[in-house]
Amino acid sequence: MNTSPDLPVARRLGFTLVEVIIAVGVVGVAIASLIGILASTFQQVDDIMQTNAALTSAQGLVTALDNPRIIFKDLTASGGISTNTSTASYLDNTADKPNFDIVYDLLKNADTPANGVWVYVYERKQVISSVEVISSATNTYNLNGNPALVEVVKMTSDNFTPDLAQARNVLGSPMRVRLTLSKLLVGQRVTLDPTTGEPTAATYASGSLPASVDNFALAYLPIVAEFYPHEYESATVFKAATNDQQPVLVQTIVINR
């Protein structure tokens, strides 16, 4: 019989190196997964915000195309904050010219993306009172209590700069919108015979519409509006053939006579 005393069992004073490595790996995987989920969530939130902004802009654009005399043209940032005075430049103020004719003249050649018409749609603070007295020596523009409105502008250069956005009190980022003729025109008899006053037999396939709206046979004009968030890049950049930016919203708009 062995009567020798039992040897003490060695105590474990900590984790082994293998256990530490496994634990660190598990924590690292969990953190990486969490970061991935957060990044995806932030992207989804940004996409939703951009889509909502585009939908708001679409409503303002439809209103402006129904009444194109409210569309501004070639605004400038000079003179500080604009108050939409009578000196503002508008797209077309020709007396007695129908609204449909104004839109038609704007878009009749926009048959391809390269020939598309670019406009900017944005929400801005409207300046009702030009100045507000803060003290006996200081005046400032009253931007706090004034209402916001949606504004549409067509720039000949297709550029909308940060200085112009500041001068117009733009809220958030503007939407850059490309307008083109809709494919719904394909197959339609769009040209009037000046002799008979009836549509010609030829159907539309591509290219510009008749030069004069008087020779346009349809009672409506379908167009496509593509909405892009505008980050104040120049027109040479966003109009380049290599630009692969995708619109956040594409909407077909029908303008009636």
Structure description:
The chain has 257 residues and is of the alpha+beta class. It has one domain. 27% of the residues lie in helices and 20% in strands. It contains four helices and eight strands; from the N terminus they run H-E-H-E-E-E-E-H-E-E-H-E. Strands 1-5-2-6-7-8 form a six-stranded mixed β-sheet. It has a two-stranded antiparallel ribbon with strand order 3-4. Residues 79-87 have low confidence and may be disordered.
Set down the secondary structure blueprint.
Blueprint: H1 17-66, E1 72-73, H2 99-107, E2 117-125, E3 132-133, E4 139-140, E5 148-154, H3 162-167, E6 170-181, E7 220-229, H4 235-238, E8 249-256
Parallel strand pairs: 1-5
Antiparallel strand pairs: 2-5, 2-6, 3-4, 6-7, 7-8
Count up the domains: 1
Decide which structural class fits the backbone. alpha+beta
What is the residue-mean pLDDT, rounded to a whole number? 82
Strand order of the largest sheet: 1-5-2-6-7-8
Sheet of most strands: 6 strands, mixed
Low-confidence stretches: 79-87
Rg value: 30 Å
- Give the quaternary arrangement of the chains: single chain
Number of helices: 4
* Helical residues, percent: 25-40%
Order of helices and strands: HEHEEEEHEEHE
Distance between the termini: 115 Å
User: How large a portion of the residues is in β-strands, by DSSP E?
Assistant: 15-25%
The total beta strand count reads 8
Q: What global shape is seen?
A: elongated
Quick structural summary:
The chain is of the alpha+beta class and 257 residues long. Helix content is 27%, strand content 20%.
Please describe the structure with a list of short key phrases separated by commas or semicolons:
alpha+beta; six-stranded mixed β-sheet; 257 residues
